[in-house]
Specification:
Shape: globular
Bound molecules: glycine, manganese (II) ion
Distance between the termini: 36 Å
Largest sheet: 6 strands, mixed
Number of strands: 14
Helix content: 25-40%
CATH class of the largest domain: Alpha Beta
Order of helices and strands: HEHEEHEEHEHHHEEEHHHHEEHHEEE
Number of helices: 13
CATH topology of the largest domain: Creatine Amidinohydrolase
Structural class: alpha+beta
Strand content: 15-25%
Strand order of the largest sheet: 4-3-2-1-5-6
Number of domains: 2
Radius of gyration: 23 Å
C-alpha cells in the first residue's frame, strides 16, 4: 500500500484493539457497535445540515464525512466496518480509500440505513442512535461508564494521530498565509475566508469548525461567525482562527495581524502576545497542571497590561481584581483530536470530575498534562465592551487607562494559537510559523 502512514495506522489500530478489549471485558460487554451518525434534515425540508461523523467512529478509521455506517468491535475478533455505499444515481456513493484500516477491518459495503444484525451476547451501541433503535437491537444505548472509558482512550494520541495532527497543521498554515496576503491586499472578510479555503484545499463544510475571520472590532467577538463582503474603510487588524482536518484530525490555529491603520501600541502587543505564547508552550511538559498554566497566562497578561500602560496597578493586582479576566475571558487551551474541543478535558484519568475553577468557567482542560496529549495554547487579549464597561463604574476602573483602551478598541483583540503535542520531556509545536 502506497500510503506512507500505513505502518503507523496499523500500530494505532493495534493499540485501539487492545484498549477496547480491556474496556469491554472489564465492563462485561461482548462487543460495541459504533454508529457514524448521519446529517440532519432541515425541518420540513429535503436539504441536509453539514455533517461530521461521531468521534469514536473517526478514532478508528478517520472518515469524517462517512454517514449511515457502523463499526462492530469485539475483543479477539476481526473488527467489521459496515460501509454505507448504496447504489444511487442521485449521488456518488463513497468509495473505500487506500488506507491501512481497510485491510485491518472486514469491510462490508452496502446499504446500512438500518443497523446491522448482531449475534448473541451482551452488546452496547454508541453514537447518535435512538433508544428505540437500541431496544430493537436488544442492546444498551450509550452507557455512561463505557463512554467515559472510551473517551479516556482518546486522550493520549498514538504516533499516527500526532502525525495526522501535524499534517492538518501544515495544510491550515497554507490557508493562514493566504489569508494574511488577502487582508494586506485589501480583501474583505469573505475574500479572506475564500482565500483560506482555496489555499488550504478544503470546502467550507469540511472545516473542523467555522472559520473565524474578523477584521477590526470583529476580532473582539470570540467566535465571530459572519463574513462581511465589503472591506472596511480603516483596516486596523485581522484575526483568523481557522483549521483543517486530516484523516479526521483537526488543526485549530489562530493568527492576528496588524493592519495598515494599526496603532503602534497594538502592533507591539501582537508581538508580545506571540512571546507570551512561546513562553507558555515552553512550559508544557508531562505533570504540568493545566489550570496552573492557565493561571500563569493571566500573570503574563497582567505583566503585559502593566508594561503597555493599560493598567496602573501591579500585575498581581490586575490578576486578583479580575482585570485580566475582563481582557481574556476564555481558557488557555483544550485537548485536540478528532474533535476540535476533544473529549475528557475535565475528567481525571481515574474518572473523577475536574470542574474548572469558578473564576475560570470557560477553561475546557483542567487536568494534568500527560505524554501523548495534544493541546492548544491560545492566549488572548481583547477589548470586549460588555466585559470592560462594568469595570469603568467600579472602584477598579480608576486603575485602567481608558484613553488607551478606546484607541485599541477598533482593533478588536489579539489571539495567537498553536497546537502542541506533549512529549516525554517537553512540548512539540505542531504549528510551523509563517513569516
Ligand atoms: N477555534 C475555537 C477554539 O480556539 O477553541
Ligand atoms: Mn482552540
Ligand atoms: Mn481556535
Amino acid at each position: 500500500m502506497s500510503d506512507p502512514l500505513a505502518t503507523l495506522q496499523r500500530e494505532h489500530l493495534q493499540i485501539l484493539e487492545r484498549d477496547y478489549a480491556e474496556v469491554l471485558t472489564s465492563l462485561g460487554y461482548d462487543g460495541v457497535l459504533i454508529y457514524s451518525g448521519h446529517p440532519a434534515l432541515h425541518f420540513g425540508d429535503d436539504q441536509h445540515a453539514s455533517f461530521s461523523s461521531y468521534g469514536h467512529f473517526q478514532h478508528w478509521i478517520g472518515q469524517a464525512g462517512l454517514a449511515h455506517s457502523w463499526l462492530l468491535i469485539r475483543p479477539g475478533q476481526r473488527p467489521i466496518c459496515y460501509f454505507h455505499a448504496p447504489d444511487d444515481f442521485w449521488h456518488l456513493p463513497p468509495h473505500l480509500p487506500e488506507q491501512a484500516w481497510t485491510e485491518h477491518f472486514e469491510v462490508l459495503t452496502g446499504r446500512y440505513d438500518a443497523p446491522p444484525k448482531l449475534g448473541t451476547g451482551r452488546f452496547a451501541v454508541i453514537g447518535n442512535v435512538s433508544e428505540t433503535t437500541a431496544s430493537a437491537l436488544g442492546v444498551q444505548c450509550n452507557p455512561p461508564a463505557l463512554l467515559a472509558a472510551l473517551d479516556e482512550g482518546r486522550v493520549r494520541k498514538s504516533e499516527f494521530e500526532t502525525t495526522c495532527l501535524s499534517e492538518s497543521n501544515r495544510m491550515a498554515m497554507l490557508g493562514h498565509r493566504a489569508a494574511r496576503e488577502a487582508f494586506l491586499a485589501g480583501g474583505s472578510e469573505l475574500d479572506i475566508h475564500l482565500a483560506y479555503l482555496q489555499a488550504s484545499r478544503q470546502r467550507e463544510s469540511e472545516l473542523p469548525y467555522g472559520n473565524i475571520v474578523g477584521i477590526g472590532g470583529h476580532a473582539a467577538v470570540l467566535h465571530y461567525q459572519h463574513y462581511d463582503t465589503a472591506t472596511p474603510h480603516k483596516r486596523y487588524s485581522l484575526l483568523v482562527d481557522a483549521g483543517h482536518r486530516y484523516r479526521g484530525y483537526c488543526a485549530d490555529i489562530t493568527r492576528t495581524w496588524p493592519g495598515p491603520d494599526a496603532e503602534p501600541t497594538f502592533t507591539a502587543l501582537v508581538e508580545r502576545m506571540h512571546q507570551i505564547k512561546q513562553r507558555l508552550i515552553a512550559a508544557v511538559a508531562p505533570g504540568v497542571d493545566f489550570v496552573e498554566l492557565h493561571e500563569r497566562m493571566h500573570h503574563l497578561l497582567g505583566e503585559l497590561l502593566v508594561e503597555s500602560e493599560l493598567v496602573t496597578v501591579s500585575a498581581e493586582s490586575a490578576v486578583q481584581s479580575g482585570i485580566t479576566r475582563a481582557f481574556c475571558p476564555h481558557g488557555l487551551g483544550h485537548l485536540l483530536g478528532v474533535q476540535v474541543h476533544d473529549v475528557a478535558g475535565r475528567t481525571a484519568r481515574d474518572g473523577t470530575p475536574l470542574p474548572p475553577p469558578p473564576e475560570h468557567p470557560a477553561l475546557r482542560l483542567t487536568r494534568e498534562l500527560e505524554t501523548g496529549m495534544a493541546v492548544t495554547i491560545e492566549p488572548g487579549l481583547y477589548v470586549i465592551p460588555m466585559l470592560l464597561e462594568p469595570l469603568e463604574s467600579s472602584p477598579t476602573g480608576q486603575h485602567l487607562n481608558w484613553a488607551l483602551i478606546e484607541r485599541l478598541a477598533p482593533h478588536g483583540g489579539i489571539r495567537t494559537e498553536d497546537n502542541v503535542s506533549v512529549t516525554a520531556h517537553a512540548a512539540r509545536n505542531l504549528t510551523a510559523d509563517i513569516e
